[in-house]
Write a structure and sequence with these properties.
mainly alpha, 19 helices, single chain, 3 domains, four-stranded mixed beta sheet
Length: 743
């Protein structure tokens, strides 16, 4: 132990008394920190300087017209990039930009092709095409720059995509909003449509039956039309004959009316004379009742009575003949009308008695009344015959007979007077009115038949067209029957689908969704996901994140510098053992390593102002790591000589790549992932990260544990194996120095 301390004191005394050694040692103490500080400073915030990376932009977009609206997506993009400072954008043509990219003036070139807007506009087509942006990069210029420029290009594409999706979805949801409003207005119609579908589904069998019946009925109708077409010539003939008959009947009525007008004065005169005759008979009979009657003149009187009666009867019969002629004319008119009605509507039921029937009743009553008058006159004539036979026998009975004759003749006169008045006031006007009505009816009937006559050709045309249409209708009905199974399946499927949708969704919810605010939906799709970053151990910048790695690296480099310039042998202490020399020189190297650590960690804190959560632990952990690293490097050189220096350098190379100080271990090749747990750098960098970002003591203790293992292992190598290996290494060192190339 005494020799160990003597070696340690002598080394520091030599440093203190030799200014050259002091300067050199000072350089060895400071130099490793420069390695750390320069790298940390260079890595401090490289992405804040991307606005100095030149990138060419070539816009060849020719624009497009979409739904009568001009769009120029390329122009809009270049306009936005002019206000974007993420990279140093240079706007140029393709040829100039590619020349500068090839020469290295540009790190990348982004080309917007001429069909950029046109392809974006295909979003409204059935087969939309994706728009493309061409990206050219010169990866030879720098390893990191292409990644940064590629990120910038990706940001551009993402920005275009985001804006495009936002605008398109805003437009879509604007349409959806209108649809939602319309659907809400038509909600009752939609529900009614659903009911129609269900009702159609329910009535499909009945519809099929009706179509089948309609097809059968159409065939029957076709047969009927064929029959009617066969009857049309006969109908034409009957119509012509009906018109001829009406013309003849009208002429007969005109003649009857003229005759009635001519006979009316004669009838009135005859009735007046018959009345006068009855009155004369009555007067004559009154005279006969005189007691001074001359029986010799009885025969003359009877003859006079008979003559008067015969005259009255003749006139009454003339009136009856006229009335019968009028009645016959009315019958003919009625038969003609019945015939016309039968031709036009053969299946109509019999009508109630009309004006002709009433006219006939009046005429029949008048004829009956005249028959009664005529009978009374005949009675008078017969009773007058009894005068001669009974006059001689019974004078009294004569008077009774005369009285009876007088009463009958008076009654007859009264009845003739009553009939005359009825004839003037009722019979004659009604007969004339009925004749006029019959003429009007015949005129209307003739017009109807005439119209029917002119209509028959049109009926023929309609029947022919109807027959043709029925044939087409039969084809359609037959097609419908053939398609019924398909329609039936589709309607049933639609009804089932509606029921399924009703079970899964509510139309009101769909309408509420469609009525969402289009601007809110557009804003949502512009940024559907917002990344909320929550840093458990926030790191201020990239330089702070790289501080643990570069600080640990500088400590290993510092150890290499020391073993390269300082000797691990103790001259002048021949009495000291190899183990004592090992530990004595180890103290010197470790003490200088501590000074290196204090300089580099203090510079990180106070010169670079690295944001370190636990600065005290940062310094303490640095001292501990320096102890382990110095122990390892010193042991390798002390035991293996120049070979140990090479081993230390190999350790350095492997640890830079395999420690995970720059890239995550998961991204490293399999070889480095395999050696990662066996490298002291892995635990040293992780331990310094705990101090920089925040302590998780479980990890810190684990790192300290493994670093302690490395210390124990190399202490054992130096203390135990140096005695065994030193003779062989001394021989190798001697031979290497003999070459004149190594010291």
């Amino acid at each position: 132990m005494k020799n160990i301390l003597r070696i340690f004191k002598r080394d520091w005394k030599g440093i203190g008394t030799n200014w050259v050694a002091a300067i050199l040692l000072g350089g060895l103490i400071i130099l490793p920190s420069l390695y750390a500080w320069f790298n940390i400073g260079a890595s401090w915030d490289p992405y804040s300087q991307t606005d100095q990376l030149p990138v060419g932009i070539v816009n060849e977009d020719k624009g497009a017209t979409v739904r009568d609206k001009e769009i120029d997506a390329g122009g809009e993009l270049t306009k936005e990039l002019k206000d974007n400072d993420s990279l140093e954008w240079h706007f140029s043509n393709r040829e100039a930009a590619m020349d500068k990219l090839e020469y290295g003036d540009y790190f990348a070139v982004i080309v917007i092709p001429e069909d950029f807007s046109e392809k974006l506009g295909t979003v409204i087509n059935d087969e939309p095409e994706k728009a493309e942006v061409e990206y050219y990069v010169n990866e030879k210029v720098n390893a990191i720059a292409p990644k940064i420029t590629e990120k910038g290009a990706s940001v551009i594409v993402d920005q275009i995509t985001s804006n495009f999706v936002s605008v398109v979805n805003g437009t879509i949801f604007d349409v959806f909003n209108d649809l939602g409003v319309e659907f809400e207005k038509d909600l009752s119609d939609i529900k009614q449509f659903e009911e129609y579908v269900f009702k159609l589904e329910e009535n499909l069998p009945e519809i099929n039956r009706l179509i089948s019946d309609a097809l059968s009925d159409s065939r029957d109708a076709e047969n009927v039309i064929n029959k009617v077409q066969g009857l049309l010539p006969e109908a034409q003939q009957i119509t012509n004959e009906g018109i001829s008959t009406i013309d003849e009947t009208t002429q007969f009525l005109n003649e009857s009316e003229d005759r009635l007008n001519k006979l009316a004065p004669q009838v009135e005169e005859d009735l007046t004379k018959a009345q006068q005759t009855a009155e004369d008979v009555n007067k004559f009979l009154t005279d006969l009742k005189s007691p001074d009657i001359d029986l010799s003149s009885i025969e003359e009187i009877r003859n006079q009575i008979n003559q008067q009666v015969d005259n009255s009867v003749q006139r009454i019969e003339d009136v009856q003949v006229v009335l019968q002629q009028v009645q016959e004319a009315s019958d003919n008119n009625e038969n003609v009308e019945s015939q016309e009605e039968g031709e036009e509507s053969p299946q109509e039921p019999a009508q109630e008695p009309d004006a002709n029937s009433q006219q006939q009743e009046v005429i029949d009553e008048a004829i009956a009344d005249l028959d009664q008058v005529k009978e009374q006159l005949q009675t008078i004539k017969a009773d007058s015959g009894e005068i001669g036979s009974t006059l001689a026998d019974k004078q009294e009975e004569i008077d009774d007979i005369l009285t009876t004759l007088q009463e009958k003749s008076g009654e007859t006169a009264d009845r003739i007077d009553s009939f005359l008045k009825e004839y003037k006031e009722d019979i004659e006007p009604r007969v004339l009115a009925e004749v006029a009505s019959a003429k009007k009816t015949l005129s209307n009937a003739r017009s109807t038949l005439k119209e029917a006559q002119t209509t028959i050709p049109e009926v023929e045309r309609i029947l022919s067209s109807t027959e043709e249409n029925i044939g087409e209708g039969q084809d359609i009905l037959a097609y419908m029957l053939n398609e019924y199974p398909y329609v039936n399946d589709k309607v049933n499927q639609l009804a089932d689908r509606i029921r399924e949708i009703q079970g899964e969704t509510d139309i009101n919810e769909i309408i509420d969704l469609l009525k969402n605010d289009p601007m809110a939906e557009q804003s949502f799709f512009a940024e559907p996901i917002v990344l909320n970053k929550n840093s458990l151990f926030p790191i201020q910048n990239y330089g702070t994140g790289m501080t643990p790695f570069y600080t640990v690296l500088s400590l290993w480099v510092g150890a290499l510098l020391l073993v390269s310039l300082l000797t691990t042998e103790a001259t002048g202490f021949e009495e000291a053992s190899n183990r004592q020399v090992y530990f004595g020189k180890l103290l010197t190297f470790i003490s200088i390593g501590f000074l290196q650590t204090l300089v580099v960690t203090s510079g990180d804190l106070f010169i670079l102002n690295v944001d370190i959560v636990n600065p005290v632990l940062f310094v303490l952990f640095g001292l501990g790591i320096s102890f382990v690293f110095m122990l390892m490097v010193y042991t390798l050189v002390a035991v293996f000589g120049d070979v140990g220096k090479a081993m230390a350098i190999v350790f350095l190379v492997l640890q830079i790549a395999g420690s995970g100080g720059t890239y995550p271990v998961a991204l490293l090749p399999e070889f480095f992932q395999a050696i990662h747990p066996y490298l002291p750098f892995s635990y040293a960098v992780d331990l310094m990260r705990e101090a920089v970002g925040g302590i998780v003591w479980a990890r810190a203790k684990e790192d300290l544990f493994f670093l302690g293992i490395f210390s124990v292992v190399f202490l054992l190598i130096g203390a135990v194996l140096k005695e065994v290996i030193i003779k062989k290494t001394m021989y190798l060192m001697k031979k290497s120095r003999e070459s004149g190339l190594f010291h």
